[in-house]
Design brief:
With 509 residues, the chain is mostly helical. It has 20 helices and no strands. The chain folds into three domains: 189 residues, Growth Hormone, Chain: A (Up-down Bundle), CATH 1.20.1250.20; 55 residues; 244 residues, Growth Hormone, Chain: A (Up-down Bundle). Helix 4 packs parallel to helix 6, helix 7 packs across helix 16 and helix 10 packs antiparallel against helix 11. The longest helix is centred in the C-terminal third of the chain and has 40 residues.
């Protein structure tokens, strides 16, 4: 009962714990920033490397596909070889590839680099969360470290477009890759100060399970990506069925193996399973909101990319505050109440977009509510993930949690963004502007605005007015649907996350 200092003061005063917190924070920020930062550089990359439309898509998708497909494998490998070792290897590889890829002369060079970045990123993410278990034995310090980790995870995805916009204002496309160096060099210098995690060196690696895991995730992710960009057709079914089939084979193999790549017994805990589902849904909500909010700000309201990003900055700042401030709240209240309450705040954010006439101020205020609530949810849910599994399985549990985030990124864009786009097309009523213009305008909001620039002034004004109205209507309808879904999900979370103290599970004793 001697300890009176707050967890933050205690961590700051202990050099090894302070170094551990920095080592956890920096690579998580980088890996999540890399999910979204390339979008802003794509026009300049297209001018420099002249990629095809398919190659441009792969430049974006290759990273997230490899990241999601290998997270389970790398988390399990960290349990065997040590998570500090995996973190250092991942950071070193990420830094080297980031420097090499700036010399790309052809599109496939850049695509190959993004594949390698996804592989090394998959080594980094599970290691950072798993090392929290080793570096912070005190439960209050651990909660604070999880809060920092979770906050970095949520703000990194939202920070990517802003950072990309600022860099490209002054530098060429290579700058979005070189930004990795200031994030990773301190990690490599400070990592030796962190205690290595417990290892299970006697366990073998099942390479067939690795291939099945990668194939299953890739198939599912490709089907979602294709559905979002092209629409539903036979190719979507082929990718989805192949991914699901490989996933079934993977699961059956894990159940037979004495030393499985993924311990499916983790899902026997309702707390663990519901926490994973909460992670997937929460990040899907955030990415889906950003997807339509950025179009609303730039295309409907006519703001520049940089100014549109600045509208979202208050939400990013409040996310940092909420992710840390929820720690003392979680100490006093049951996690099911905290998470359900935060989900209701997220529902309020979508309700604002559904019920109020959209303005830049409304978008900014709704993003404050949403991003702050998601940051708080991420802190508590990942505390539950760590607290609901044995110490030797923390790497596998971490990788499952982070895989849920990556799937949430795709599903947020696909389901929420896809719903907005579909409703936009259904409600669009373009005045007479020629058949080609109508076809282009119906495809996307950006297409409608591009077409309007080729038309006479009066026709252009009518096209823009109709397209903006259709997009706004689609956004508001989708937001209303999501409001109802979030409320229902909050009730489910309240029911299945009834744990007074997530760190009192047997896995922590």
């Amino acid at each position: 009962m001697q300890r009176t200092a707050s967890p933050l003061v205690s961590i700051i005063q202990d050099r090894s714990k302070g170094a551990a917190l920095l080592v956890i924070m920096l690579p998580v920020l980088l890996v999540t920033i890399d999910n979204t930062i390339l979008n802003f550089a794509l026009p300049r990359i297209a001018a420099a490397l002249n990629p095809s439309a398919a190659e441009q898509l792969w430049m974006i998708d290759a990273y997230s596909l490899m990241l999601a497909g290998l997270l389970v494998t790398m988390g399990s490998s960290g349990d065997r070889f040590g998570h500090r070792r995996m973190l250092c290897l991942g950071c070193m590889g990420f830094a080297v590839v980031s420097m090499v890829v700036v010399f790309s002369q052809q599109a496939w060079h850049l695509i190959a680099g993004r594949v390698l970045l996804g592989c090394f990123g998959a080594m980094i993410l599970p290691a950072t969360l798993a090392l929290i278990r080793t570096a912070f034995e005190d439960r209050e310090e651990r909660r604070l470290a999880v809060a920092v980790w979770a906050t970095c995870l949520t703000i990194g995805s939202a920070l990517g477009p802003l950072l990309g916009g600022v860099l490209l204002q002054y530098f060429d496309w290579q700058s979005v890759f070189l930004v990795a160096l200031p994030f990773l060099l301190p990690v490599l210098l400070l990592a030796p100060m962190i205690t290595e995690s417990p290892r299970q060196p006697g366990r073998s690696i099942d390479y067939l399970s690795i291939l099945l895991s990668l194939g299953a995730m890739t198939g599912v992710m490709l089907s979602l990506k294709y559905l979002a960009t092209v629409g539903f057709d036979g190719e979507v079914l082929i990718w989805a069925l192949s991914g699901i089939s490989l996933g079934v084979v993977f699961v059956r193999r894990q159940l037979r193996l004495e030393q499985p790549l993924l311990d499916l017994g983790l899902f026997a805990s309702p707390v663990f399973s519901m926490s994973i589902a909460t992670n997937l849904v929460s990040l899907g909500l955030l990415i889906g909101f950003i997807f339509f909010a950025t179009q609303l700000l730039q295309l409907v309201f006519g703001l520049s990319p940089l100014l549109a990003s600045l509208i979202l900055v208050p939400g990013q700042v409040l996310a940092i505050v909420a992710g840390l401030a929820v720690v003392p709240v979680a100490q006093k209240h049951a996690p099911n109440r905290v998470i359900a309450g935060c989900l209701l705040l997220a529902a309020a954010a979508f309700a604002m977009m559904a019920l109020l006439a959209p303005t830049a101020l409304i978008v900014g205020a709704a993003f404050v509510l949403l991003n702050a609530s998601i940051a708080a949810i991420t802190t508590v849910s990942n505390d539950l993930v760590l607290g609901s599994v044995p110490a030797e399985s923390v790497g596998s549990a971490s990788s499952v949690s982070e895989t849920a985030y990556e799937v949430g990124v795709v599903m947020g864009t696909t389901l929420i963004g896809g719903a907005v786009a579909a409703l936009y097309r259904l409600s669009l009523d373009i005045p007479e502007a020629g058949p080609e213009s109508v076809v282009a305008a119906v495809a996307t909001l950006g297409g409608a605005h591009a077409v309007s620039q080729t038309q006479p002034e009066d026709v252009a004004a009518r096209i823009m007015e109709a397209a903006n109205a259709a997009f706004t209507e689609g956004m508001m309808t989708t937001s209303a649907i999501m409001t109802g879904f979030i409320v229902l999900f909050a009730l489910v979370a309240f029911r299945f996350l009834r744990v007074r103290d997530p760190l009192s599970h047997a896995g922590n004793r």
